[in-house]
Every structure is written in structure tokens, then in C-alpha cells.
Amino acid sequence: MQDKTISASNTLKAGNRVLGIGIAAIVLILALAAFFLFRALPDANAFNDRVERIFVENALTGQAEITLLEILAQSGTAFSETLTSYRIVIFVLLVVSTALLIATLGFIITLLTLNKRVSEIDKQGIQVASLLISRDERLVVLNDMEFKLTDAAIETMSVLAEARMDGDILSGSELEGMIQGRSAADCDEAAGATRIKRLRDSLGNQMVSEILVKNISRKGYVLSIDKDVIKMI
User: Fold this and answer.
1) pTM score
2) Which of 85, 165, 194, 227 has the CA that lies 20 to 30 A from 100?
3) What are phi and psi of 124, to 5 degrees?
4) Are 171 and 118 in a shared domain?
5) Is 1 helix (H, G, I), strand (E, B) or coil?
6) Element (H, E) at 113
7) Same domain as 143, residue 219
8) 70, 93, 124 - which closes a domain
């Protein structure tokens, strides 16, 4: 148990470290992109400065030239305002892109962690601290989850629990024979498989039922839990 706790802690730390590095890389890349992009954009007053320079260098002082200067100055002001709005739009898009990339990275790491956890559960079986079976009440209490079963399902569950405590794996015909009180040779394999399917349907939660009631190829069915946690009343 301690090894599993340490492993889970190490996995969590590794995931947080990868997430931190990923976020830092995203922010750094987009910050560099923003720096070079804004640096490449022309200065907002570049147009006005160039027009003024032309008039100064060529000593254009006539009325017509001054009128033209005013028109060009207005055009330069419009260009300056447009360029400023472009800068704001680019900045907002970069901020949104950063947020989306960070969120995507977080979702990917979360999905990978969940997939790894589900894979570990599938390999190790469900972690059951206690399994209480009450035939009279047709009730199964798995950890803190209660399942109200049918008569047939509680009988199937009870037989599987007894077999698990004895360290046995039951085939479908053996399961059917123990419930019916007959020889396994006189019972059909499909009948036992049907009982297992109905038990899983009664448990309801697909992940719980599929992992709890294991089907071992060419051997049979078994509860994938520690036999010491089983209690029957």
C-alpha cells in the first residue's frame, strides 16, 4: 500500500512538473512571437514623419503644398489609429491563444493521467476495503456503495464470494451447478454466463461490475478482490 501511495505521489509530481514546463514553454514561445511581431510592425507615426521629412527637405511652402501636407497628415493620423487598433487586436489574440494552449495542455495531461489510472485499475482490479453480502436483505455493500440485488443475482454473488474465499475459480457450469445443487457436468456453461451477465446488470456501474467480476479465459469467473475483505451475513 505504501509503494502504491509513493507511486501515485510521484506520478502526481511528475504530471505537475510536466504541466509547469509546458505552460512555461507556451508562454515563452508566444512572448517571443509577440516581441518579434510587434517589433516588425511599423511605428504609428512613421507615415507622418516621412511626409514631414519630404516637405522639409524640399522646402515646399506654397499654399497647395501646405494643403497637401494637411491632407497627408490626416491620412497619417488615420493610419496611426488603424495601426494602434491592429496592435490591440494582435495582443488580444495572443492572450486568447495562450489561454487556449494552456487549457489544451491541461486537458491532455488530465486525460493521460486518467487513462493511466484506469489502466492500473484494470490490471490490479478494483480496490475493495470491504465487501458485505446479506442474503436475507438481498444487499451487497461494496466499500461505501450499496447494491440492492435480485434473488438470482444475490445467489450468484454469494457463490462467487464463497469460491473466492476458498481460492477457487468457477466456470459457468460449475457456478450453475452450485446454485442449482447439481453436478457441473449436468449444467450448461451458457446458463452460468447468463447469471454473470445478470449480476453485472444488477450492479449497474459498468466499470465496477466489469472489474469486480473477472472473466479469466479458459478458467472461469472470480471476484477480483482480496478474500479477507469479504463478509457474509
Assistant:
1) 0.47
2) 85
3) -90, -15
4) no
5) coil
6) helix 63-124
7) yes
8) 124
Among the ranges 18-32, 39-53, 122-136, which has the highest mean pLDDT value? 18-32
Please state, in angstroms and rounded to a whole number, the distance separating the CA atoms of residues 216 and 212.
12
Q: Rounded distance, CA 84 to CA 8, Å? A: 51
Whether 170 and 59 map to the same domain: the answer is no
Phi, psi of 130 (to 5 degrees): -155, 145
Which of 81, 99, 124 finishes a domain? 124
In this structure, the answer to whether residues 120 and 211 fall within a common structural domain is: no
**SS3 at position 97:** helix
Contact 228, 210 (CB under 8 A): no
| pLDDT in the model for residue 116 | 73
* CATH number for the domain that contains residue 166: 1.10.10.10
**Residue 4 pLDDT greater than 60, yes or no:** no
Q: Exposed, middle or buried by CB within 10 Å (0-12, 13-18, 19+), for 187?
A: buried
Same-domain check for residues 52 and 32: yes
Do both 106 and 159 map to the same domain? no
The cell 504541466 sits on which residue? 19
Q: What is the per-residue burial (b if ≥16 Cβ within 10 Å, else e) of 31-65?
A: eeebeeeeeeeeebeebbeebeeeeeeeeeeeeee
Note down the domain range covering 170: 131-232
Grid coordinates given for 91: 495582443
**DSSP states along 125-184:** ----S-EEEETTTTEEEETTEEEE--HHHHHHHHHHHHHHHTT--B-HHHHHHHHHTS-G
